[in-house]
Amino acid sequence: MARTLIETDRRIPDALRVAFGLCQRPPPAPGQHDEVANFAAVLLPPRDDGGTSEPMDCDEPVAPGGLRMVFESSYIRDHDEDAHFGHAEAGVVGVADGVGGYRGRVDASAFARGLMNNAYMEVVTAAPGTHVCPRTLLDRAHQATAAAGTAAASTAVIVSLAGRTLKWAYVGDSGFVVFRDGRILRRSQSQQHHFNCPYQLNSKPDGIRVAAAAAVGEVPAKEGDIVVVGTDGLFDNVTDDELERIVRMGTALGFSPKNFAEVLAGFAFEAARCTNRDTPFSVLGRRETGQAFPACGKPDDITVVVAHIVSHTLPLMISRSNPHNCEQ
């Protein structure tokens, strides 16, 4: 764990610590603090719209030519129950989060991993050039995972780039955000039965079915758009305002998708362990329960996939694979 904390700590620019009051690292020395604070003020200006996060209308003309998705991921384990996949040529990424309520009875990660593995296999066995429909893909992956009698349950989200259109489907509180020019263009809204109890997919005959429950949608894509896909370990701990400010900072610094994924995951990791600042989880807890709820984060597995929408003429980058998460 010490090594993990050190690696995570290095992902977070000091400007973010100063701007957002992160607690994991001691403040810089007095002589350095002003320099870092000034840097934060320049790159991380506060929102000027009253803090709202309404989606912007997509009314800009779409330039001719093909687009594709270049993505990378970062995964910080807590209980090790998240899974994700991606396929660069097909332009599709997905994440899943095993439901922790099964922990101690069965392998709580089983359904999430089965779901992502089955989605990945559907993509790699499809005819080349096939445009991925996220709802169809999620439905087929769910059917295959359920048919195998896989234990536990999972939330999930799949986002694809089909031609010049971004499409998505999700169930539960795994989600996505699309950024354009440093501002939120589209954002998923968590599906929950009640506080901290998201919709979930499982193998039960009377369980939720993707076709009926999934939230789906699409938006015209534009070169330069940035898509962030993640589990609730990200969205429970990082606000929309913080996401926008980090994206603007990363864009100004020329972050690659890997830079973005690691900084966002590292930021969420530290925010989850703070006990002196509000997070989306603590704010929602007070609102939904009507009870006192401490200003704190929610430690959890954190999966972040960041995709840049780029011109099809740029070289194709193939993501690395790892034992639990499928990427190609």
TrEMBL record:
GO terms for molecular function: metal ion binding; protein serine/threonine phosphatase activity. It catalyses: O-phospho-L-threonyl-[protein] + H2O = L-threonyl-[protein] + phosphate; O-phospho-L-seryl-[protein] + H2O = L-seryl-[protein] + phosphate. Its cofactor is Mg(2+); Mn(2+). InterPro entries: PPM-type-like_dom_sf (IPR036457), PPM-type_phosphatase-like_dom (IPR001932), PPTC7 (IPR039123). Its EC number is 3.1.3.16. The keyword ATP-binding does not apply. PROSITE patterns: PPM_2. Keywords: Hydrolase, Magnesium, Manganese, Metal-binding, Protein phosphatase. It is an enzyme of class 3 (hydrolase). SMART domains: PP2C_SIG, PP2Cc. Residues 67-309 form the PPM-type phosphatase domain. It holds the Pfam family PP2C_2. Belongs to the PP2C family. This is Protein phosphatase. It comes from Panicum virgatum (Blackwell switchgrass). The lineage of its organism: Eukaryota, Viridiplantae, Streptophyta, Embryophyta, Tracheophyta.
